[in-house]
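Entry 14. Ran structure prediction on the chain below.
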Amino acid sequence: MLIAGPTASGKSALALALARAGGGVVVNADALQVYDGWRVLTARPTPEDEAEAPHALFGHVAMDAPYSVGHWLRELAPLLDGPRRPIVVGGSGLYLSALTEGLADIPPVPASVREEADALPLPALLAGLDPPTRAGLDPANRARVQRAWEVLHATGAGLAEWRRATSPPLLPLARATALLLSSPVPALDARIAARFDAMLAAGALEEVRANLTLWRPLPAFRALGAEPLRRHLLGETTLEAARAEAVQATRLYAKRQRTWFRARMRGWTPLAPP
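Output, structure tokens:
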């Protein structure tokens, strides 16, 4: 079973309810919930949730370790054939599309290329892409734009060209029950704000503080809300302003997710959130 949807739409609660009712293992398909330094800020399942049903691929990657959709697919493969029913849940559209549509076998990017990309502003990264790849990207998603820039400059071929040589999918959509949670925008916006307040109450600020000495321009530190809370801890902004920035960034991210889902997940079954 596959469950997708925008952030804060209730995916994890649905996955846990299904695992409790019918058995199975809840498998993460969120690119930031893999990191061990974030539990509260990325809304990873709580220890209590994990005690109620088996969970996999959550919080198992070091904050500074390289991790990609290719790593995720390799770790997911044995779970798809395991003894427990996998309930794959997350909002990372690239992960879910790679699972159901296949993934190009792109060579690893050298550290020197990644460091060069880290130092470039987003407009420069966009300008350095080949037109076919640039046309298929969300220009506001730095992580995806930077990945495309790195691939082009490391291999000489753009992501669009690599995708034309895509391998067969691990789980074709026709073989899966694929649910796509959808929620009216005003209701989702309210949930996003309430969830961030709950994160603050549960220790999100302390979680960011614990990661300050590790802070690097790496994918792990792009967790929604992390940067404004870091700036608050450094005395550069108030907690109220950091909260407002984080909530707005999360709403914009949810909007980008909805755009992706409409374009790429038309074969999924829409479902109102629990």
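The chain has a mean pLDDT of 95. Will compare against last week's run tomorrow.
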